[in-house]
Design a protein that fits this description.
22% of the residues lie in helices and 37% in strands. The protein is an alpha+beta fold and 207 residues long. Strands 1, 2, 3, 4, 5, 7, 8, 9 and 10 form a nine-stranded mixed β-sheet that branches. Strands 6-11 form a two-stranded antiparallel sheet. The C terminus is likely disordered.
């Protein structure tokens, strides 16, 4: 589910040519350092520091904390015995070639294009909705380098920029969908009484 959402965000970034390289990263130990590495396949990773040319542009997303969940009691929906809201914090980092105020322009572009709901992803994973919010953007190079490349020796090229965006992903979904191999049909799970024309106004649905 999370990977589907990450890929959906990265697809939006591709639509606007944010970078040349994209990926889902994990913070991995490298000697005395902890640095992000992008998963490829079969347990193989590419380290962000050594395996990419930063001036070409790279955008990666990593999880930045544990997810939290809570039960939701919403009278607008029936049929959801176990409706829950899941919140997953993520960090999106973009590195690229600086052109005038490119870093600020890129941050504003990403905030505008990434923030919002993702109906296609919701349908894919069987969620009631998926909502993404950009909480903050850090443009300070030294701060971002310290948080992303702990203990690593970085030779920074001032012709590049790096920004870090803190993102909250909120997923409202029936918990039964989390354990199913097949995609849930959200229309069979949750019906919004305000929108359903077949409703007689009570908790009993007529078809």
């Amino acid at each position: 589910m999370i990977i589907t959402i990450v890929n959906g965000i990265l697809d939006r970034l591709r639509d606007y040519d944010v970078a040349r390289h994209y990926g889902f990263a994990e913070m991995l130990p490298d000697g005395e350092s902890i640095i992000p590495a992008i998963y490829c396949n079969n347990g193989e990773y590419r380290h962000v520091v050594n395996d990419y040319e930063w001036s070409e542009g790279i955008a990666y997303i990593r999880l930045s904390g544990a997810d939290t969940s809570e039960p939701i009691f919403d009278e607008a929906f029936v049929g959801c015995q176990d409706l829950i809201s899941i919140r997953q914090p993520m960090t999106l980092v973009v590195i690229g070639k600086r052109k005038k105020y490119r870093n600020f322009e890129m941050g504003e572009l990403i905030r505008a294009k990434v923030t919002g709901t993702y109906p296609s992803i919701s349908a894919t994973i069987g969620a009631v909705y998926v909502d993404i919010d950009v909480r903050s953007i850090d443009y300070d190079i030294s701060t971002v380098l310290r948080s992303e490349f702990e203990g690593a020796s970085i030779s920074w090229d001032t012709a590049n920029y790096i920004i870090s965006l803190s993102i909250d992903v909120t997923i409202r979904i029936d918990s039964k969908c989390l354990n199913q191999a097949a995609v849930c049909d959200v229309n069979a799970i949750a019906v919004n009484l305000d929108d359903d024309l077949a409703s007689n106004g009570s908790t009993t649905l007529t078809y």
